[in-house]
Every structure is written in structure tokens, then in C-alpha cells.
Specification:
With 408 residues, the chain is an alpha/beta fold. It folds into two domains: 255 residues, Rossmann fold (3-Layer(aba) Sandwich), CATH 3.40.50.150; 113 residues, no CATH class. Helix content is 36%, strand content 14%. The chain has 15 helices and ten strands. Helix 4 crosses helix 7 and helix 5 packs across helix 7. The longest helix is centred in the last third of the chain and has 18 residues. The chain starts with 13 loop residues before the first helix and ends with a strand.
């Protein structure tokens, strides 16, 4: 009989698990094979260039869905992600000649994913950019104050582009929107803003402090050439015709993961996803500039994006999501759910253990999925984590922990 998991008990790191186990592939706490290995490279930017069109908070590397898509699906299969983010799973599915189905409660996800599944040519981008009046005069007095991020003339160009894209929604326009989003803030001259963070939209007051510390004011950044340069980089790996072929067969939805109303029952062959890890990331605050540019009101997402410090609430949320996945996944289909370890009540909690508990308790998801394996891959911290002075085994998530579940 498998050992009972106590959700509030302290957990161990991957290194500690290795040292405690006689057989490193067998978890002492769950009795489920727990495999430690480097399943994909730790090197950066090794996949198709479209994956790197835009940075996104708490997103996984494309190598992760690539690993599971290749092993647990076939060409033509439907591969889904109910927490789509920037569309990494859907794009990798399409690149591997599968159909993608991407969902997120935040409509920003659809704006980031659609252009990558329907890429166009550099020539189309340049031709369209030449048709846009970036420097068109306008009254700036009623606009939101973003002077801590942008030079006045840069801001005028951004506003003119924003208005243009609100009225023009061809595939070329939507691709330009994606690239513009990726340039809104960052740490190099290739971005529209003064020196800032590339992956999160920091508060205005924080940006003002950065400017003061560095002794600078935002300089003029002409946006047309920056969009074109980034577009060329994103499109450099080619294959647009093939990507569009499978991209047109894919589906993008905006809904709660607990109610995937546009996903047909027993239609999905494989799910590769990563839910929010308790309250580790504030997805609304961290993407406020992107949502502003797209005309998405932050208030429209209040209460919809689950960001909770409560383990009980998180467990109920994930349990309800798993129940919905049970509805949409084919019998024998696979769910690969990536979670991590989090600090909870001053203790390190491995969320893969919580998923095992959910799968075994009648009040949650007993009988819906059989957990086959747990994959644990050590993870080096990103440049963003280093900016926050996050070090291994102290803060944040140190490992990818993927729970592989088969639908009963």
C-alpha cells in the first residue's frame, strides 16, 4: 500500500531526495517512480526562434513540452494546455505536426499565441510598418503617465501603434502587435523603454527609482526599426507555411481551467501544462503594461486569476481543473503537469506530492487518473532570478517536477 501523503509536512530538495534514496528512481514518500535526470538541455534558446518572440513570467522552456509531446503523442494528435501563458505547448505541438489547443483565463495569452501559430514573412511586416503613421500628432494630455518608461516621442509612437492595432486585426497586424509587446520594456537599447526588467512590468514607482539610481531619463527609442529587427530575429528559423498549416487546425480559448467549455469531451490526446504555484507569481501585476497596450482592463481579471496563499484553496482549484481534464482527455490519454517546490509556512513543500494526494483521495480525484511517473529535472536560475538575488534552495522554484498521469 502506498504511503499516505501529509500536505503540511516538510519536503526535501532533489539533492536530498537523491541522498536519502537507495534507489534514486523510487520516491520514499509516494512509492511512485521518481526519475532524476537531465531530460532536456539547460542551454538557452535551443528551439525554434518563434518560441523567443516574447518573455513571459513563470513560463517553462519549450524543451519541456517537446520532451513529452515526442514521447506521448503522434503527428495529428491534439495537444492541449489549460494554462497556456505565452503558448509554448501549443507552438511546440504545431512544430511537431500536432494540433494545439491553448487556453488561459487571461486574454493576453491568446494575443501572444495566435501570431506564433500564424507567422508571416519579414517582407509583410516591413510593408505594413511603412503604412503606419507612427509620428502622427496627437493630444497627449489625457494619456496615462508613462514618462518613467518612455521618452515623449517614443510614447507618441507607441500610442499611435496601439490605436492602429485596435482597429486593424489581420495576421500581419497581430504579428506586429506580438513583437511590439515584446519590446515594451527591457534592459537593452533594443527595447522601447529606459533600462527595466524584460520579463515583468514593474510598478511605475519602481521604474522611477531605477532611473534615479542610474541617473538617467528615458531617451528617444524609435519603435519601427526595433520592431522590424526583432521580427527578423523571431522569424529567422523559417517554416512559416508548415506552421500555419497546423496552426489553422489549432484552437485558442479564453476560459477558466475548471470550465474548458470549448474543449470537446474525450478529444485531447495529451496535455502538457503548468498551473500557478500557490501565490508565487502575480500574473496581473507582472503583465500590466502588456495588458494596457492590448486594451485589456486589469479589473476584468480580478477574481478570475487564481493567486492564493492558501494550500487548501489551491488544492481545490487544481482538483477541479484535473476533473475538467478528466472530461476532455481521451481514455488512456496523458497529462504531464509541471509543478515545483514552494515555501509554505516556513517549510519546503513539493507540489508533486500534493498532486499524488489529489489522485488518491475520494473527495478530490480518486479514480480519474493513474500517476505513472514523476520526472525531476534540476534547474539553473534565470537572469531574472539573479536580479532578485534568488539562489538555489533558498527562494523560488529550483526544479522542474513533472507528474505524468494517465486518464482512466
Amino acid at each position: 500500500m502506498a504511503a499516505r501523503i501529509i500536505p503540511f509536512s516538510p519536503s526535501v530538495t532533489a539533492k536530498e531526495e537523491r541522498s536519502r534514496n537507495v534507489n534514486p528512481q523510487q520516491s520514499l514518500t509516494t512509492g511512485i517512480p521518481r526519475i532524476f535526470d537531465e531530460f532536456w538541455t539547460a542551454k538557452q534558446r535551443q528551439m525554434h526562434s518563434l518560441h523567443y518572440a516574447v518573455s513571459y513570467r513563470a513560463s517553462f522552456k519549450p524543451e519541456l513540452p517537446d520532451y513529452f509531446i515526442k514521447r506521448f503523442s503522434n503527428p495529428g494528435d491534439l495537444v492541449g494546455d489549460p494554462f497556456g501563458g505565452r503558448g509554448t505547448t501549443a507552438l511546440q505541438a504545431v512544430l511537431l505536426e500536432r494540433r494545439g489547443i491553448n487556453n488561459d483565463v487571461n486574454p493576453l495569452s491568446e494575443r501572444l499565441t495566435y501570431p506564433k501559430l500564424n507567422p508571416i514573412s519579414e517582407e509583410e511586416v516591413e510593408e505594413r510598418l511603412n503604412e503606419i503613421s507612427f509620428a502622427r500628432p496627437r493630444d497627449m494630455s489625457g494619456e496615462e503617465d508613462l514618462s518613467m518608461f518612455y521618452h515623449p516621442e517614443t510614447y507618441r509612437e507607441i500610442l499611435n501603434l496601439k490605436d492602429f492595432l485596435a482597429e486593424n486585426r489581420t495576421d500581419v497586424d497581430r504579428f506586429i502587435e506580438l513583437i511590439a509587446i515584446s519590446r515594451l520594456h527591457g534592459h537593452s537599447p533594443g527595447f522601447f523603454s529606459a533600462y527595466s526588467f524584460p520579463q515583468i512590468s514593474i510598478p511605475k514607482s519602481n521604474q522611477a527609482k531605477i532611473n534615479k539610481t542610474r541617473g538617467v531619463e528615458p531617451d528617444y527609442r524609435e519603435i519601427k526599426t526595433r520592431i522590424l529587427k526583432k521580427a527578423k530575429s523571431v522569424l529567422k528559423d523559417g517554416g512559416s507555411e508548415k506552421i500555419r498549416k497546423f496552426g489553422k487546425k489549432s484552437l485558442l480559448t479564453v476560459s477558466d481551467s475548471r470550465n474548458l467549455k470549448e474543449w470537446k469531451s474525450e478529444s485531447v490526446d495529451l496535455v502538457v501544462t503548468s498551473p500557478p504555484f500557490l501565490n508565487q507569481v502575480d500574473y496581473i501585476a507582472d503583465g500590466w503594461l502588456e495588458m494596457w497596450f492590448c486594451g485589456i482592463e486589469k479589473s476584468s481579471l480580478q477574481g478570475k486569476v487564481v493567486q492564493t496563499p492558501s494550500l487548501d484553496e489551491w488544492m481545490k482549484f487544481i482538483s477541479d481543473t484535473i476533473s475538467e481534464l478528466y472530461r476532455v482527455v481521451k481514455p488512456g490519454g496523458i497529462v504531464a503537469m509541471e509543478v515545483g517546490e514552494v515555501r509554505y509556512q516556513s517549510k519546503l513543500l513539493n507540489l508533486d506530492e500534493i498532486l499524488v494526494q489529489l489522485s488518491r483521495e475520494k473527495r478530490y480525484n480518486a479514480g480519474q487518473f493513474t500517476i505513472k511517473e514523476i520526472y525531476v529535472q534540476s534547474q539553473e536560475f534565470t537572469k531574472l532570478a539573479n536580479c532578485f538575488k534568488v539562489t538555489n534552495n533558498e527562494l523560488g522554484t529550483n526544479t522542474n517536477r513533472i507528474v505524468l498521469m494517465e486518464r482512466n
